[in-house]
């Protein structure tokens, strides 16, 4: 299993960060420009990654003010788990960590690990920008 992680500190209380992440409609704001055909509800989203694949994900687990886990709701090119954890820093800020776990063979790892890392970094960066 390939695990890619990216963390950021957000200048908002944990409940606000969690509420934003808990609604899949908000995740479109976190996506890079190569994502299109976005469609979402509170619990799921589908989109196309330019020159790669169409992906449909749904929230499979929620632990209020702690973590969210999203998994593919349709057949994906590989097993995938997208997890967000949020932790109260005790000073009105929150540490948000985005963890992408993907079951990649060696060939897929060479092709996908870089773009997945870029995606995780982009999403945490955007989260900090949006929730100033």
Key attributes of the depicted protein:
glycosyltransferase, 26% helix, 2 helices, 132 residues, alpha+beta, 7 strands, seven-stranded antiparallel β-sheet, Alpha-D-Glucose-1,6-Bisphosphate, Chain A, domain 4, globular
Question: Can you characterise this structure?
Answer:
- The chain is an alpha+beta fold and 132 residues long.
- The protein has a single domain, classed as Alpha-D-Glucose-1,6-Bisphosphate, Chain A, domain 4.
- The chain is 26% helix and 42% strand.
- It has two helices and seven strands.
- The protein has helices spanning 14-22, 106-130; strands spanning 2-10, 35-40, 44-49, 54-63, 67-72, 80-88, 94-102.
- Strands 1-7-6-5-4-3-2 form a seven-stranded antiparallel beta sheet, with helices on one face.
- Strand 3 (44-49) and strand 4 (54-63) form a beta hairpin.
- It starts with a strand and ends with a helix.
- 22% of the residues are buried.
- GO terms for molecular function: glycosyltransferase activity.
- This is Orotate phosphoribosyltransferase.
In short:
By secondary structure, the protein is an alpha+beta fold.
Name of the CATH class: Alpha Beta
H/E element string? EHEEEEEEH
Please describe the biggest sheet, giving its number of strands, its sense, and whether it closes into a barrel: 7 strands, antiparallel
Shape: globular
Distance between the termini: 33 Å
CATH topology: Alpha-D-Glucose-1,6-Bisphosphate, Chain A, domain 4
CATH superfamily: START domain
Proportion of residues in helical segments: 25-40%
Strands side by side in the biggest sheet: 1-7-6-5-4-3-2
Summed over residues and divided by their number, the pLDDT gives a mean of 94
Question: Could you name the ranges where pLDDT drops below 50 across 5 or more consecutive residues?
Answer: none
Beta content comes to: 35-45%
Count the strands? Answer: 7
Organism: Pedobacter cryoconitis
Keywords: Glycosyltransferase, Transferase
GO molecular function, one term: glycosyltransferase activity
Protein name: Orotate phosphoribosyltransferase
């Amino acid at each position: 299993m390939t695990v890619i992680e990216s963390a950021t500190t957000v200048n908002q209380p944990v409940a606000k960060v969690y509420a934003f992440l808990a609604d899949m409609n908000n995740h479109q704001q976190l996506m890079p420009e190569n994502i299109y055909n976005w469609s979402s509800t509170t619990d799921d989203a589908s989109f196309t990654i330019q020159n790669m694949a169409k992906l449909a994900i749904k929230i499979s687990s929620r632990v209020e003010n702690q973590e969210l886990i999203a998994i593919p709701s349709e057949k994906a090119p590989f097993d995938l788990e997208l997890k967000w954890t949020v932790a109260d820093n005790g000073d009105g800020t929150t540490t948000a960590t985005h963890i992408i776990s993907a079951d990649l063979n060696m060939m897929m790892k060479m092709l996908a690990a870089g773009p997945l890392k870029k995606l995780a970094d982009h999403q945490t960066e955007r989260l900090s920008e949006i929730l100033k």
